[in-house]
Specification:
Layout (H helix, E strand, L loop, with lengths): L1 H18 L5 H8 L3 H4 L1 H13 L3 H8 L1 H21 L3 H15 L2 H12 L5 H29 L4 H4 L1 H15 L14 H20 L9 H23 L13 H17 L1 H14 L3 H25 L5 H19 L8 H16 L2 H8 L8 H39 L7 H6 L8 H32 L2 H5 L10
Helix pairs in contact: 1-8, 1-9, 1-11, 4-7, 4-12, 4-20, 5-6, 5-20, 6-7, 6-8, 6-11, 8-9, 8-20, 9-16, 9-19, 12-13, 12-20, 14-19, 14-20, 15-16, 15-22, 16-18, 17-18, 17-19, 17-22, 20-22
């Protein structure tokens, strides 16, 4: 039991860091005298480092042993978190965010593999429900906690408040976790696969983050990043298919349920936190709502997740994974259909309801995805499979968030260009509905431009919500491909 508690706390600790700094970005921007593009690296660097280092979990657990790898990871994470709070420049903050993520990201798959091995058979479902509570609740409560702390104290305390929780997690690992497998010092890291994958993932992320601002392939930087990403991806694929033990073993995909589970994980990662990132920006641009109010709205998602996770403890051993997946992704689709109906006058109640519905769906997904992934899996390679699962989920999340912003910003500019064409005294429709607008007044023209901008921004984000909804539909054919009951191992 204490092993489960310690692993859940470790996972919650790292999951919280993913989104806790989001609502503090305006404060960090002002304190560091940075531009919006520059301060965004506080988030982007964390996402890139997570995607790059999380697949190394299998190698770390084999080389050091799972207990030692987790203890060193939590220790490094704690030091990096303190240094984030003490940073005096944006460069220092970004550097320590990278170190924080590099130390913390492998903890999630390693701790998951510990829980999977510690609770076999029918015990696994309820145990993963408790463990999943830490995974999904961390990013949910983090914006609320971060918004309150940064508003009452300063952005530095967003990092400092994590230190006591990190020390508690370290104490739990030292006391409760026992090493069940001896470390294998002969295991070597596949540096070719690791470096090529890291370069490909990082370049694609940079392209998505900077492409819209740099006008895509009219920019030399974007062209170089695309070429480097293509070459690195080719090296990684060719190397992985020809090496006996590559960094990410493609032979794991020969397991049907694992391959289908990875496909479902890809879509889950894309949908997991995207509304939590899009909605705060939309509400701030349209309504100027304070950060803490927005964080409170996001907490409705946590309430929905908490309710569904409590249900999962009871039903996870009774219902099939297909049933739970259909409920979970059905809630995502319902939330997406509701967000597609938002307009410039969307109420805070509507936002809270859509968040609660999506949060309810999130709570129903973690357990069945895990059960499907490892239902026919070799227990000796659990850490490796868990690392691949979290890599796919993390990359899908960061890429989909970036692509959603690209879609929102690009279509907003297009919509603005289309809408201003209709603003003319010679347009009979505009003249009839213009009301008090006076096109001869500079003040009215400024107010009219602001209103057109609001409408264009709304259209852009609605397009992103349409994409969210259609992606949620793509998962249902994959659910039908699950083999259940699973084939017995061996």
């Amino acid at each position: 039991m204490w092993v489960l508690v310690s692993c859940t706390l470790v996972t919650t600790l790292y999951a919280t860091t993913i989104t806790i700094a989001n609502v503090s970005l305006p404060q960090i921007q002002g304190a560091m005298s940075a531009s919006p593009d520059q301060v965004a690296w506080v988030i982007t660097a964390n996402l890139i480092a997570t995607a790059v280092t999380i697949p190394a979990a299998g190698w770390l657990s084999a080389r050091l042993g799972r207990r030692r790898a987790m203890i060193w990871g939590v220790s490094g994470f704690t030091v990096a978190t303190v240094m984030c709070g003490l940073s005096t420049s944006l460069e220092q903050l970004v550097l320590w965010r990278v170190v924080q993520s590099a130390c913390g990201s492998p903890l999630t798959p390693i701790s998951q593999s510990v829980v999977i091995d510690a609770f076999p058979g029918e015990k696994r479902g309820p145990a993963m429900a408790v463990y999943g509570l830490g995974v999904v609740m961390g990013p949910t409560i983090a914006p609320l906690l971060g918004g309150y702390v940064s508003q009452e104290l300063s952005w530095r305390w967003v990092f400092f408040i994590l230190v006591p929780m990190a020390m508690l997690a370290l104490a739990g690992l030292l006391l409760a976790l026992k090493e069940t497998r001896p470390p294998d010092t002969k295991v070597r890291l596949d540096w070719t696969g690791f470096v090529s994958l890291s370069v490909a993932v990082s370049c694609i992320q940079l392209m998505l983050d900077r492409g819209e601002r740099l006008e895509w392939f009219t920019s030399t930087e974007i062209v170089v990043e695309a070429c480097v990403a293509a070459v690195a991806a080719w090296v990684f694929v060719a190397h992985s298919l020809t090496r006996e033990r590559p960094f990410l073993d493609p032979r794991l995909l020969l397991n049907r349920n694992f391959a289908v589970g990875l496909g479902i994980s890809l879509i889950f990662g894309a949908l997991f936190v995207t509304p939590m990132v899009l909605l705060p920006v939309l509400l701030q641009q349209l309504r100027g709502i304070p950060e803490f109010t927005i964080a409170t709205l996001m907490a409705a998602r946590g309430l929905g997740t908490f309710v569904s996770q409590l249900l999962m403890v009871v039903v996870s051993s009774r219902w099939t994974p297909r049933t739970m997946l259909l409920i979970g992704f059905g809630a995502h689709t319902a939330a997406g259909l509701q967000m597609m109906q938002f307009d410039v006058n969307v109420t805070l109640t509507e936002v809270a309801i859509s968040n609660a519905v999506q949060g309810f769906g999130v709570g129903f997904l973690w357990v069945p995805i895990t059960l499907v992934l490892f239902s026919e899996f070799d227990p000796r390679r659990t850490a490796e499979g868990s690392g691949m699962f979290h890599f796919v989920r993390s990359v899908a999340s960061s890429y989909f968030i970036s692509f959603s912003f690209v879609l929102a910003f690009h279509t907003s500019k297009m919509s603005y260009s289309n809408l201003v064409q209709w603003i003319s005294p010679y347009n009979a429709f505009f003249a009839h509905h213009a009301g008090g607008w006076d096109l001869g007044s500079e003040a009215d023209l400024l107010r009219l431009s602001g209103e057109v901008t609001r409408q264009a921004v709304t259209i852009g984000y609605l397009n992103a919500f349409h994409l969210f909804t259609w992606v949620s539909f793509a998962v249902y054919p994959l659910i039908a491909l699950i083999r259940w009951p699973p084939r017995p191992r061996g």
